[in-house]
């Protein structure tokens, strides 16, 4: 059952991605409307798939690569739907939804068998720690997309290229605002995730911090976003500089999330 | 009944002629009454704007109605018809419907897609409705024109792009600064285009204007016009950081704002972006300013490019609009044609029935020693004959009412039998404004 919903999700996100990429090239508004409907339908299927898996496994499905990537994709799409509602920028989907699709395709490449939960993970802290981390990652993903669009739009403005895509992309101000908004939501969540992780570590392993690769890289991610937030609030870093830092932050965050688990052995790797 | 249009516009007449035949909206009652008092004219609406004067009317006699309106225009404005006639165009039936739909949708405007014309036609129609010069057909017709214009507006992008340089500047600024509601404009030097652009910025919600000029009095005068603030030219750089939008057009022989100046100003603004438009030749603002990260500099040429692209886009959208209009014309024409079917059938029946009764009476009054049920039988016989005779033409006419060629039949019947059909509504009016 969970698998059926999972593949429905895959197909719906795939179609939505195709439409959103088409929307970059074509001017018809109808394309974007249908794409957003497909995303919403995909999100529902995704949610059902996740809930179903939660019911049959008995724990939050984020304990292996298959589950984590799928869950990440779910949170990204959820965050996207909220941001699109607020900012009414359909074109954001052309940049975010392909990422969500990649995540879920990645997820489908890993084995999906449900295994007995590692006893160390049986704790309420799992919820707090991971959900905070995932939501902060999702907002950073949105910030990344807004940053990419910002750079494209700025390129058009500086090179004086006023084509159809330029018309469709939102204003620099809006993009910068999204970037800032994501930062102010994502950064506190990441902070809570790291602190709750430390508390949980103390309870489970007897030490707050053990320089596990995941911990180290999370801290690096945290420092990048801390620097960006600080720069924004004090000296008025904005625009291109903020966009570039957001992109750097996103890449490091992606490595923290996926790379560390895949290539660097440690307490957080899925075994 | 036929719809006719007679008028002139910016396409056929210069402004000198247009102003001679314009109708003042305050004095529109008299011409409206005179118009519908004409023998040939049944209903009438007068549209008079600075770009066009048009009369929409309904008539039984197309050629006569058009000629009469032309004469009416000439006589009303005391212009010899010979000098007016070359500028007048006229349409009837389907072409008239198409013309009005196009005008209302702003496809016939000087600047295609400009939004004012629809409002102007609505106002003109308002007068006609108020003074009862429009009736069943024109009411329905103009409401249809309004809904067509609305459809064109929502389904095509005909009105959504900037086609003047000043407006393009506003659109461009929005792409950088987002909402203009908390933004300040700085006007350097006096130039017609800069002033126009500043007006556009104010209309789009900009918060305030600063004006500077080498002659401070001129700056003051202009600032007053915008209820803004005059700044001494020497103090430009003490105030520049407060401006988000800078419009420059001085006659200075050399650059007055360099990259170093802007860099300092932007830093002072905590890197809030600035939008510059340089209209001056030679340039007022060093092109290197555009290389700075949070400064965006545009020239008139850049704006002109946007306008050109938008115009091209607009003509594509205009094609879509024409398609919409074609669909709507078909529908409306069908309604118009079917409008007269029922009254014509009724008139035809009445005409036959009158003859039947008259003949019957004549026969009965001369007939002595009538068998007891003869009167009844004769009545039934003549009734049956009449019904049988009328059955085929009635069905054909009704069927034609659902097709397109019904006006031919209706006109033919009217002339053959000299019918005078009374127009009445047989369909619910759906008014959409």
Report on the architecture of this protein.
Chain A: One of its GO terms (molecular function) is heme transmembrane transporter activity. The complex is a heterodimer of chains A (271) and B (433). By secondary structure, chain A is mainly α. Chain A has helices spanning 2-25, 29-57, 65-87, 92-109, 124-159, 164-168, 172-205, 213-234, 239-263. In chain A, helix 1 (2-25) runs antiparallel to helix 2, helix 5 (124-159) runs antiparallel to helix 7 and helix 8 (213-234) runs antiparallel to helix 9 (239-263). The longest helix of chain A has 36 residues, at 124-159. The model of chain A has no long low-confidence stretch (mean pLDDT 90). With 433 residues, chain B is α/β, with parallel strands linked by helices. Helices cover 55% and strands 13% of the residues of chain B. Chain B contains 16 helices and 10 strands. In chain B, helix 7 (136-155) packs antiparallel against helix 13, helix 8 crosses helix 9 (192-203) and helix 14 runs antiparallel to helix 15 (374-402). The longest helix of chain B has 39 residues, at 300-338. The A-B interface holds A 27, 153, 157-158, 160, 162-163, 166-167, 171-174, 177, 235-241 and B 157, 161, 172, 174-179, 269-273, 290, 293-294, 296, 298, 302, 305-306, 309.
Keywords:
heterodimer, A: 271 residues, mainly alpha, 2 domains, B: 433 residues, alpha/beta, Rossmann fold, 3 domains, six-stranded parallel beta sheet, GluRdtase_N_sf (chain B), Shikm_DH/Glu-tRNA_Rdtase (chain B), 4pyrrol_synth_GluRdtase (chain B), Glutamyl-tRNA reductase (chain B)
């Amino acid at each position: 059952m969970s698998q059926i919903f999972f593949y429905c999700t895959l197909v719906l996100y795939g179609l939505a991605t195709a439409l959103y990429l088409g929307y970059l090239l074509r001017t018809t508004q109808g394309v974007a409307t249908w794409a957003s409907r497909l995303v919403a339908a995909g999100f529902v299927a995704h949610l059902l798939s996740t809930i179903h898996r939660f019911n049959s496994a008995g724990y939050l499905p984020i304990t292996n690569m298959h589950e984590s990537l799928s869950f990440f994709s779910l949170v990204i799409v959820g965050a996207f739907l909220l941001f699109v509602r607020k900012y009414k920028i359909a074109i954001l989907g052309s940049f975010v939804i392909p990422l969500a699709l990649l995540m879920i395709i990645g997820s489908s490449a890993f084995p999906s068998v449900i295994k007995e939960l590692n006893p160390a993970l049986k704790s309420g802290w799992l919820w707090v720690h991971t959900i905070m981390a995932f939501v902060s990652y999702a907002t950073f993903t949105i910030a990344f997309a807004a940053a990419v669009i910002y750079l494209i739009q700025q390129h058009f403005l500086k090179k004086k290229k006023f084509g159809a895509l330029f018309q469709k992309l939102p204003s620099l101000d809006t993009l910068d605002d999204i970037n800032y908004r994501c930062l102010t939501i994502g950064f506190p969540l990441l902070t809570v995730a790291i602190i709750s992780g430390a508390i949980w570590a103390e309870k489970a392993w007897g030490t707050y911090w053990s320089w596990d690769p995941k911990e180290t890289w999370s801290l690096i991610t945290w420092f990048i976003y801390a620097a960006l937030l600080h720069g924004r609030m004090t000296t008025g870093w904005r625009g291109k500089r903020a966009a570039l830092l957001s992109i750097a932050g996103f890449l490091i965050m992606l490595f923290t999330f996926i790379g560390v688990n895949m290539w660097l052995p440690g307490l957080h790797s899925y075994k | 009944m036929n719809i006719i249009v007679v008028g002139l516009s910016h396409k056929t007449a210069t402004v000198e002629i247009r102003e001679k035949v314009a109708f003042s909206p305050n004095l529109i009652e008299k011409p409206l009454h005179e118009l519908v008092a004409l023998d040939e004219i049944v209903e009438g609406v007068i549209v008079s704007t600075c770009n066009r004067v048009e009369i929409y009317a309904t008539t039984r006699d197309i050629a006569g109605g058009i000629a009469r309106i032309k004469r009416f225009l000439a006589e009303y404005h005391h212009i010899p018809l010979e000098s007016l006639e070359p500028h007048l165009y006229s349409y009837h039936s389907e072409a008239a419907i198409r013309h009005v739909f196009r005008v209302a949708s702003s496809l016939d405007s000087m600047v295609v897609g400009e939004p004012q014309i629809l409002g102007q036609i609505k106002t003109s129609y308002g007068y006609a409705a108020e003074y009862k010069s429009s009736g069943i057909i024109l009411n329905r017709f103009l409401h249809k024109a309004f809904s067509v214009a609305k459809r064109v507006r929502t389904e095509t992008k005909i009105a959504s792009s900037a086609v003047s340089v000043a407006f393009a500047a506003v659109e461009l600024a929005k792409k950088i600064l987002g909402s203009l509601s908390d933004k300040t404009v700085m006007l350097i030097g006096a130039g017609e285009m800069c002033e126009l652009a500043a007006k556009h910025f104010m209309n789009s919600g900009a918060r305030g204007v600063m004006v500077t000029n080498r002659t401070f009095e001129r700056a003051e005068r202009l600032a007053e016009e915008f209820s803004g603030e005059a700044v001494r030219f020497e103090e430009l750089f003490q105030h520049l950081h407060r401006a988000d939008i800078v419009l420059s057009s001085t006659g200075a022989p050399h650059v007055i704002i360099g990259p170093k100046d802007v860099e300092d100003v932007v830093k002072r603004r905590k890197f809030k972006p600035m939008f510059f438009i340089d209209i001056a030749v030679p340039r007022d603002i060093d092109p290197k300013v555009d290389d700075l990260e949070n400064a965006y500099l545009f020239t008139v040429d850049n704006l002109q490019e946007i306008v050109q692209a938008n115009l091209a886009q607009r003509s594509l959208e205009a094609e879509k609009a024409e398609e919409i209009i074609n669909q709507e014309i078909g529908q409306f024409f069908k309604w118009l044609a079917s409008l007269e079917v029922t009254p014509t059938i009724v008139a035809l029946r009445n005409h036959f029935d009158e003859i039947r009764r008259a003949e019957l009476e004549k026969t009965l009054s001369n007939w002595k020693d009538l068998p007891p049920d003869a009167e009844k039988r004769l009545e039934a016989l003549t009734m049956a004959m009449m019904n049988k005779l009328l059955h085929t033409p009635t069905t054909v006419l009704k069927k034609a009412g659902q097709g397109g060629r019904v006006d031919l039949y209706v006109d033919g019947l009217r002339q053959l039998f000299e019918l005078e059909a009374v127009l009445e509504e047989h369909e619910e009016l759906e008014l959409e404004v």
